[in-house]
Amino acid sequence: MGLGRMAFQISNNMRTVLVFLKFLGFFPGFVRERKRTEHRYIVLRLTAYALTLFGILLNLYFFKANVAMTFRYHKHFGFLHATTVSTIITGIKPFINAMLLFLMVLRLKSHIKMLRMMDNVDQIFKKSFGKSPPIRRYNKIFGGIVLFFVVLPLTYRIFESIWMDIHSRHKRTLSEWLTDVSFILVPLLTAWNMIPLFYYVFCNRVVCYWCKTLKKCIQKEHFKRQFSLKFYYEQFLRITALQKAIGSVFNPIVFFSLAWSLLMLSLTIYFITQPASRLAEPITVQQISSERARKELTERVYINLGWSAIQITVAIIHIIFICATGLKTNEETRKIINAVLAIVPDSNADLDRFQISCFVHKMSTQYMWGMTVWRAFPLERTTFFTLVSVMFTYSFLLLKLKDNPAVSPIIRQIIQINGTNVNGVL
User: Could you list the residue ranges that cross the membrane (predicted)?
Assistant: First the structure.
């Protein structure tokens, strides 16, 4: 029984995270299936897939309602109105969640393979070096971060309800407050949005721990030879194979997350830099003559902008976390090569010079650096600064076009023509 538990040490310690993923529909599978009777296994699997299907359909239902609301706002206020833009920014979240659920289910076999590879690597490292990642501590950090990002929108939703109840003509009763499902759905939507990102960081932290362990053990070879370089190379290959497995699971999610995050930032920058956008007075006298109704709608616009600010912050967090996590993993992997190269001047390693040369040559030629975005480009410092520079360049160009007296009237005319065409279609 002890050996059986040892074989699944990582996945056993990750049980809290995996159950959370299963409850949200991200992981409708099982790492090991040998102890389950056929009937119980079928029931559990069907339940897991039902949760996934429920999550996808629920998010698509919300997305459909948000699209209809966006078209209504566009019809009454126009595309560049604060309400329309904020509805687009916040209304796309259910579609993002549905896509994340679909991508995780699509990569289910790769996900299970990744977890089993983690168990194998942990078993070998624990037997050889006596080291194992502090999964329980990672679980606590994971749970704390998720709790923070769930409580944040819930707090804002409670503030929104209290604020609108105070300034509204119709006061809600206690039963209406208790039966308001938005207090459950809002944190749930945020959890669906953020969990894949934090799980990606979690898996990379585990890999970084093994990279550090291998690097430290290689550095100790200066003082006492314990293992051959061939053994270290085999462990390096196991780590890189695990990195490849993590990439196979998360590459579509990373690519999609970067895409929608950049889309949100681009839309926000475009709205802020346009001369036709209004934030100080979103509801004008020409649109609604009633002072009280106009004031209530203006307050609603500002509340919606608060939700947009939260979603924009989430987009920025996605970009920073993805780039920082990939950078950390790749740098820790490079340090293994540096540790191997440091053995070369050692007098005790004269007989191993040829083997070290082969080791470094294989690492340099056969290993494509770990965390990438579908092998299109690596997650390095240059990736992050490239994305930042693109956003700044985009903002600068829009501001220059806005301030240019020769271009601004043309842009406003194009906006008016496009708005007329869209209204004609609607």
Answer: 43-63, 83-108, 141-159, 181-202, 253-272, 305-327, 382-399
CB atoms within 10 A of CB 245: 20
Q: Which domain holds residue 156?
A: 2-425
Report the number of distinct structural domains present in the chain.
1
Per the DSSP assignment, residues forming a β-bridge with 378 are: 372
What is the amino acid identity at position 27?
F
Residue whose pair of structure tokens reads 């299963």 in the numeric block: 22
Q: What is the pLDDT of residues 141-170, one digit of tens each?
A: 999 999 999 999 999 988 888 887 776 666
- One-letter amino acid at 265 equals L
* N-term to C-term CA, the chain: 67
